[in-house]
UniProtKB/TrEMBL annotation:
The protein's role, per its UniProt record: Involved in the catabolism of quinolinic acid (QA).
Transferase in keyword set: yes
Protein name per UniProt: Nicotinate-nucleotide pyrophosphorylase [carboxylating]
One GO molecular-function entry: nicotinate-nucleotide diphosphorylase (carboxylating) activity
Organism: Aphanomyces astaci (Crayfish plague agent)
Length: 264
């Protein structure tokens, strides 16, 4: 119906529209659009700093019909990308505030068809994408281990298939599994769903025995709880919440009116 509206009602005249930020957040998604940006990517949009309560984020020029056809898709992308960047930026800030300089990372939990945007938003926030797709790193989870018979067998098969150039990560639920994974040649072990005291103890033991092994903490960690998992022996803290359950940053698009761009 929106497409039919644009065909039959909207004219072909040249118009100027303005993208307005209406809620607090970190701007992300700039490379996906050809517009005149007024706010640098990664900057904080704070409507409380302007009298109108609406920050002019970008200027959009073109045929009226084209602007309106792309309006909703563009706003959907920006609200979600900026929401993720806002959430991830807050997580990174917490980590750095605690003096921890490891990787705050997302997970493989992304929206089908929207992964590129979500992973990009993590980068804008200073977080890590983890892996961008299945071809970038081998991750062996419990199902892979069960299918192979053991962690050692799973790692050996993965190393044969992946070759020398690809890292291998193994999900582990206890110290013995992590030690087996390290001995088998894993580059990274994920300590999944560990309680913070147990995590710190296991991570310290692993680092003492395998100094070059990367250790990831994961499983139900949020911005509110990540401080409990911070340790000098943990290299990565990954959170599915960075790309799930985030708040949207509110944007709107308004075609310029004679009485001003912020007129209702």
């Amino acid at each position: 119906m929106a497409y039919l509206t644009s065909i039959y009602i909207m004219v072909e005249s040249d118009q100027v529209a303005f993208l307005l930020g209406k809620s607090h957040g970190v701007l992300a998604g700039v490379p996906f659009f050809t517009v005149e940006w007024q706010v640098p990517e990664g900057s904080v949009i704070d409507p409380s700093t302007v009298a109108s309560g609406k920050v002019v984020v970008a200027k959009v020029s073109g045929k009226c019909r084209n602007i309106l056809l792309g309006e909703r898709t563009a706003l959907n992308i920006l609200t979600r990308a900026s929401g993720i960047a806002t959430q991830a930026s807050a997580a990174v800030k917490v980590a750095r505030g605690l003096g921890w300089h490891g990787h705050v990372a997302g997970t493989r939990k992304t929206t089908p068809g929207f992964r590129v945007v979500e992973k990009y938003a993590l980068l804008v926030a200073g977080a890590s994408t983890h892996r961008n797709d299945l071809s970038q790193m081998v991750m062996l989870k419990d199902n892979h281990v069960w299918a192979s018979g053991s962690i050692t067998n799973a790692v050996k098969k993965a190393k044969t298939a992946a070759g020398f150039s690809m890292k291998i990560e193994v999900e582990c639920r206890k110290l013995e599994e992590a030690v087996e994974a390290a001995h088998a040649g894993a580059d990274i072990v994920m300590l999944d769903n560990f309680e913070p005291p147990q995590l710190k103890q296991v991570a310290a033991t692993l680092k003492q025995q395998f100094p070059h092994l990367l250790i990831e903490a994961s499983g139900g960690i949020t911005i509110d709880t990540m401080g409990d998992y911070v340790s000098p022996h943990v290299d990565i803290i990954s959170q599915g919440k960075l790309t799930q359950g985030y708040g949207f940053v509110d944007f709107s698009l308004k075609i310029q009116k004679s009485e001003g761009i912020l007129a209702d």
